[in-house]
Amino acid sequence: MSCDDYYMSRPKELCEFLAQALKLLWSVDISDCPRKITLDDELAEARYRVENNLVDVDDAEPDTYGPGGFENPKALLKWLENNRPEREPVLSHGDFCLPNVFIENGKLSGLIDLGDTGVNDKWLDIALCYRSLKHNADGTWGKKVYEGFNPELFFEALGIEPDWEKIRYYILLDELF
User: Fold this and answer.
1) How many other CB atoms are found less than 10 A from the CB of residue 144?
2) CB atoms within 10 A of CB 88
């Protein structure tokens, strides 16, 4: 897995592999893709989860709820509905996190957990990967802290500037799932 100590100890190399995997997905022609995931679809599913008390607020990012955050999942959902980003459709993994990307013998070797794959906004994958890099590096996940690890190397490897509003939006959307 790309969250293995070997790759976490080599952030530049890791980010290059992650960027390679995303660019590979994004290079797929989506014109005939049978699964198109709209923001309306995602927000409808989020609404169902909120209305049926299926959101685990204890598993949320520390600043999502409470002082400086949202009062509750219902307030977060309302904000998400009112702040929809412009979308850039690509073939999206849907859960592009470090444990779902495999590297072997210095090569990208596979992706797993493809149940949410389809046409979606490229910033969804970017946001989830950024959060995964950040939390694998800061010890939130995996319990080992990688001092000096800069998750923003990911944007350099992708050759893009981060769109922090879209990244925040998709991380917040994921809080309802």
Assistant:
1) 12
2) 14
3-class DSSP state of 74: helix
Question: Of 174, 21, 6, 4, which is closest to residue 112 (Cα–Cα)?
Answer: 21
Tell me the two tokens of residue 8.
């976490």
pLDDT of residue 16: 97
Residue at token pair 């969804």: 124
Q: What angle do CA 43, 44, 46 make, to 5 degrees?
A: 60
Query: For 70, how many CA atoms within 13 A lie in the half-sphere containing its CB?
Result: 17
> What pLDDT, on the 0 to 100 scale, is given for residue 162?
98
* Rounded Cα distance, 137 and 142, in Å: 8
Residues with catalytic annotation? 95
pTM, entire model: 0.95
Q: Which DSSP category does 39 fall into? A: H
The Cα-based distances of 17 to 2, 66, 84 in angstroms read 8, 36, 30
The reported pLDDT for the residue numbered 142 is 85
**7: nearest Cα among 109, 81, 86:** 109
Q: Which residue has the tokens 């849907």?
A: 94
Phi, psi angle pair for 111, to nearest 5°: -125, 140
